[in-house]
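The following block was generated as part of the benchmark described in Methods. Ligand: magnesium ion.
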Amino acid sequence: MTLLKVEDLTIAFKSRQGVVKAVDHLSLELEQGSSLGIVGESGSGKSVTSLSIMGLLQNANADITGNIVLDGVDLLRLSQKDMRKIRGKSVSMIFQEPMTSLNPLHTCGKQIMEPILIHQKDVSKQDARNMAMEMLRLVGIPSPEQRFHEYPHQMSGGMRQRIMIAIALACHTKLLIADEPTTALDVTIQAQILDLMTSLKKKRNLSIIMITHDLGVVKEMCEKVVVMYTGQIVEKSPTELVFTDPLHPYTQGLLNAIPKISNKVDRLEAIEGTVPDALNMPSGCSFHPRCKYATEKCKLEAPPLFKQEDGREVRCFIYDVTKEVDDVHATK
Ligand SMILES: Nc1ncnc2c1ncn2[C@@H]1O[C@H](COP(=O)(O)OP(=O)(O)O)[C@@H](O)[C@H]1O
Ligand SMILES: [Mg+2]
């Protein structure tokens, strides 16, 4: 069953300097119980995409078009009030740095109880407390009775991320969006958190969107992957094939950069050049200035996503086969 369907999502920010198209006609689907990785360098529109699914961009100066349908409900057409009922209940999110989203003044236990009390009106405080304790156990916090009463600053980074996951899943959410959840953690703790997420995904038939600049994380966690560049999807593929047979020149570059990333370098130096300035995008294919295969055509024309025979989609003229998807948006 399709849980999430994003169609033609376009998000533009207006500023005095001009308009930044942070997300450009993005479409993706996610099945219940499956996991999708969104990969790309910093500034490619990953976080903006996830914030829009959470309904958290409404207050920014963002112009959003398209559809985001979660479990049959079009989230972009909901009022703020109705979106609040969905956030934390049907869709939850965890972030890179838990300290910025945890409340330093409340105990961890209280913060796990909060979404339960908000979304499940018939649950008593005592029941909520028991449920929160159960969540602490579920996410593998040792001595939960004691930890329940502790504050975020008393915990390590890995423990805090577990608390965030407990809060996110307290109301049996169907979709968990994880935005670089392990980037700030050291490698062993990172592996433990990914293992935890994988086991919770199975236990709860959870759907996961894993946002990362690290293809290694995708390999570990995700069945499918979309690669983003300058707000657009440049490749959609089953995870396996991205590693054995990457199509887009950018995806190939990301793969070459993997050993560097595992050394905790937050930059993909194997790809020459830098991401273009969002206010000053190149003509044609936005990747052409960095692409060793670029031709005259790439400088002039923006490629659409070309659907391959095996179902993969790739935004590059090299893969111009007979069928085209989203050809309407080929020209910006
Ligand atoms: N609130 C905002 N106002 C204006 N521009 C923004 C805002 N949030 C993000 N952007 C711009 O949108 C683009 C995509 O950002 P983001 O989704 O955070 O990238 P990623 O998560 O892939 O690193 C960037 O060019 C960023 O500067
Ligand atoms: Mg981000």
